[in-house]
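Progress narrative, work stream C.
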Amino acid sequence: LSLICKQEELLEVLTVEVDPKFHRQGIGSEMMKFAEVVAEREGKQQLRLVTNKRNIHAVSFFKQLGYKINK
């Protein structure tokens, strides 16, 4: 999990990587929950995820967590 504070109100998630041996065990979801906790603790109003829209697995994962995709 890589996070960066881009602006006063924004925390950006640059990477969420889980070893393929451990996929589908909730680890990625827990990392995103952690990112949300960090954002709240730091007073951030937004959490931005960065991924390639052609990465259908990542897009699907983030949508399942309730994030919306901006193009």
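Work stream C, second folded protein:
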Amino acid sequence: ARCAEPASDPEGPVVAYDNLTGPVRIAIDPVSHEEVRTDSAWKSTYRGRTYYFGSLLTLHRFEANPAAYAR
């Protein structure tokens, strides 16, 4: 099982390799808890950490109250 904590690697862990784009990095959306690709997700920085999101809705929810979701 994946942890909902942001990855210690600022780009997220490499979990696969795409022959066209190279390494595929995955992070966990802190609002929806879904896996998201760091190269195609919305992102926000809070207290020096970058968080990635699978949708604009979860990004907006996070930015409205980041302390409720950040770890």
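The helical segments are 56-64, 66-69. No further action is required on this item.
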